[in-house]
């Protein structure tokens, strides 16, 4: 039965993906102004140049034909060419995706390492002063603009203490062969420990910038979910049976309390993806977000369009994954 | 018809009384009261900006550039010698206007479409629901940045870019609540009295779904302000000619090593306002709708 549900859930994602493609397609075509004129910008482009760009983007064909060319291009992995960088967009995306994924995973790790102990601990002493101080701190973390916090971290850890580098993934003096595109993995594969240390140092500030904000959010969710589970009968039963308190908290309560946390984490992937864009800009991280921002200023709209599409598809995929994890965590749940 | 009007007046009375009740409940929560006060002060400062700002916000004085916070310039000056306090005061006008206007647009479109979709159901409902699902796949900042990339920096462009994605949440909330209220007896009663659909939606259902909408709207004001600042920080929000907190923080980025105050102080001012709206929203949630879950 579970398999049927999983297939149903997979099928339900298809219309959303189709919708994303359609929105991204119409995006450039419905907004005011001629995209070709905007892209070629102030440079006195000749009529020939404009016509050749127009036909390269298929803007001279009827709309239904454009849509078909766009969708079939996406399916085949042919996303057109970047005007600014003179390279296929698909290659640019493939190049910038690993750094973004690596950073996102690091953010997740930082967030979990902070949120899990804080959330559990405060839930065990609800209403105490430490609970109130921590939860106010969490609200502060949620209200804090990411870009500002990033600058504060730079000011403190780099300007004052000089502990961490502020830009890029690794010092230019070091050399590392790209195998997977994930710097940490590549460094381990090469057995280059100096590079690994350098990569981790570069990763620290960007991951902390967003990790703290995400931790603030997750700590609140974990706390309220724990508060609910701690009142459940099976927790009372475990206690009555003489199970030690740490065991009650970890084995009986926390495992069940994490189920709703997974859902919220999935919904917040959007916040992570958006925040990534900011963090990558501040720390000159060569990922997808920085590609989008630099492409906007280069008026390289084909890249912007495709990257936005990729972001939306990642979001859909992440939520799908969360739903599937959810069924495994809690087999009683119907999707 | 007479008793319908009578019922309406009774309803208005009950709503007003409950608003008073909300305030009385809220008063028991000191942090929410403080938050409301802070938001009020920011609004006052924004309104009286031109009167209270000590210097014109765009007046450059290169002799006075990069002065530390002190008696002359309370929050210091930036790289062009502009007074940071004055620019922050003018920045409050931008942030607060953007926050309120974009949320107002979101509430207007989201709630009216949600009411209609939830009340009439049918094809319109399924089209709007599918559309909202697809729009949800575009994270806030990413859809706004993409819109701004094409529209170009500008005050009203920004408001539309924020609202275009923001109405979805209000739509989903209003639609869901309307569906639930639909089945209640008082809606049946209004129908059997022969009230037209629009009147049932506006005077029967809307007051009942309003509490959760107010909570979401309050929390969203702070969110939109951060979003505006993020876009201005990236250089695609408010044009550089208008002082805005986000672009002020961005301008100070290169000066971080020499003049810490240029970036950090506008950020603190921004954070205090956002924290206050969030605290107020949380306070309202406890009073009005403890079950509502809001995505950030």
Radius of gyration of chain A: 24 Å
Largest sheet of chain B: none
Please give the largest β-sheet of chain A.
Answer: none
H and E string of chain B: HHHHHHHHHHH
Q: What's the gyration radius of chain B in Å? A: 22 Å
Helix share, percent of chain A = over 70%
Nearest-integer average pLDDT of chain B? 85
Quick one: CATH superfamily of chain B? MetI-like
Helix-strand string of chain A = HHHHHHHHHHHHHH
- Overall number of structural domains of chain A: 2
Helix content of chain B: over 70%
Low-confidence stretches of chain B: none
* Count of separate DSSP helical elements of chain B: 11
| Strand residue percentage of chain B | under 5%
Number of strands of chain B: 0
- SS content category of chain B: mainly alpha
The total number of structural domains of chain B is 1
Written description of the protein model:
The complex is a heterodimer of chains A (335) and B (296). By secondary structure, chain A is mainly alpha-helical. Chain A contains 14 helices and no strands. Chain A has two domains: 2-75, no CATH class; 89-329, Orthogonal Bundle (MetI-like fold). Helix content of chain A is 76%, strand content 0%. In chain A, α5 (89-124) packs across α9, α7 (146-160) packs across α9 and α11 (245-267) packs antiparallel against α14 (301-329). In chain B, α2 packs across α4, α8 crosses α9 (197-234) and α9 runs parallel beside α10. Chain B has a single domain (2-295), classed as MetI-like fold. The model of chain B has no long low-confidence stretch (mean pLDDT 85). Chains A and B meet through α1, α6, α7, α12 and α13 of A and α5, α6, α9, α10 and α11 of B.
């Amino acid at each position: 039965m579970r398999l049927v549900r999983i297939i149903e859930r997979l099928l339900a994602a298809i219309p959303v993906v189709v919708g994303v493609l359609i929105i991204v397609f119409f995006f450039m075509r419905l907004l005011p102004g001629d995209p070709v004129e905007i892209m070629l910008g102030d440079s006195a482009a000749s009529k020939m140049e404009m016509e050749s760009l127009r036909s390269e983007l298929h803007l001279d064909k009827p709309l239904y034909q454009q849509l078909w060319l766009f969708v079939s291009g996406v399916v085949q992995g042919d996303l057109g060419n970047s005007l600014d960088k003179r390279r296929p967009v698909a290659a640019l995306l493939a190049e910038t995706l690993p750094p973004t994924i690596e950073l996102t995973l690091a953010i997740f790790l930082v967030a979990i390492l902070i949120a899990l102990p804080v959330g559990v601990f405060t839930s065990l002493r609800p209403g105490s002063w430490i609970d109130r101080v921590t939860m106010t701190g969490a609200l502060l973390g949620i209200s804090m603009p990411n870009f500002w916090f990033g600058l504060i971290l730079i000011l403190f850890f780099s300007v004052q203490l000089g502990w961490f580098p502020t830009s890029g993934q690794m010092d230019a003096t070091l050399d590392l062969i790209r195998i997977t595109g994930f710097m940490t993995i590549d460094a381990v594969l090469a057995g280059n420990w100096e590079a690994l240390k350098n990569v981790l140092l570069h990763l620290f500030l960007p991951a902390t910038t967003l990790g703290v904000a995400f931790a603030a959010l997750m700590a609140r969710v974990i706390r309220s979910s724990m508060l609910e589970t701690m009142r459940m009968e099976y927790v009372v039963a475990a206690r009555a049976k003489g199970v030690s308190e740490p065991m009650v908290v970890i084995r009986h309560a926390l495992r069940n309390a994490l189920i709703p946390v997974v859902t919220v984490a999935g919904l917040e992937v959007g916040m992570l993806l958006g925040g990534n864009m900011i963090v990558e800009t501040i720390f000159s991280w060569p990922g997808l977000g920085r590609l989008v921002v630099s492409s906007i200023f280069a008026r390289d709209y084909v890249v912007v369009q495709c990257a936005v599409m990729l972001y939306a598809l990642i979001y859909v995929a992440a939520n799908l994954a969360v739903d599937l994890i959810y069924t495994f965590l809690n087999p009683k749940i119907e999707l | 018809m007479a008793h319908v009007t009578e019922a309406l007046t009774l309803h208005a009375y009950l709503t007003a009384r409950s608003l008073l009740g909300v305030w009385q409940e809220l008063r028991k929560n000191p942090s929410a009261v403080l938050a409301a006060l802070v938001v009020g002060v920011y609004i006052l400062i924004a309104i009286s900006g031109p009167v209270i700002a000590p210097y014109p916000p765009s007046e450059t004085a290169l002799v006075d550039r990069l002065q530390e916070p002190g008696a002359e310039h309370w929050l210091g000056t930036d790289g062009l010698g502009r007074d940071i306090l004055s620019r922050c005061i003018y920045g409050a006008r931008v942030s607060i206007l953007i926050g309120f206007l974009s949320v107002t647009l979101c509430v207007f479109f989201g709630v009216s479409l949600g009411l209609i979709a939830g009340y009439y159901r049918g094809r319109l409902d399924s089209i709007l629901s599918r559309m909202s699902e697809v729009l949800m796949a575009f994270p806030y900042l990413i859809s706004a940045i993409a819109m701004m990339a094409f529209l170009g920096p500008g005050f009203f462009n920004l408001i539309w870019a924020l609202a275009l994605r923001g109405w979805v949440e209000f739509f989903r909330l209003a639609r869901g609540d309307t569906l639930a209220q639909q089945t209640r007896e008082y809606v049946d009663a209004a129908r059997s009295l022969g009230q037209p659909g629009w009147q049932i939606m506006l005077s029967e259902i809307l007051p009942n779904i309003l509490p959760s909408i107010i909570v979401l709207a309050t929390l969203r004001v702070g969110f939109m302000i951060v979003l505006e600042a993020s876009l201005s920080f990236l250089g695609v929000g408010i044009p550089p000619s208008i002082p805005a907190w986000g672009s002020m923080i961005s301008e100070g980025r290169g000066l971080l090593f020499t003049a810490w105050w240029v970036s950090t102080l506008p950020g603190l001012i921004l954070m205090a306002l956002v924290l206050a709206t969030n605290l107020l929203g949380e306070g309202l949630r406890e009073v009005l709708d403890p079950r509502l879950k809001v995505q950030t």
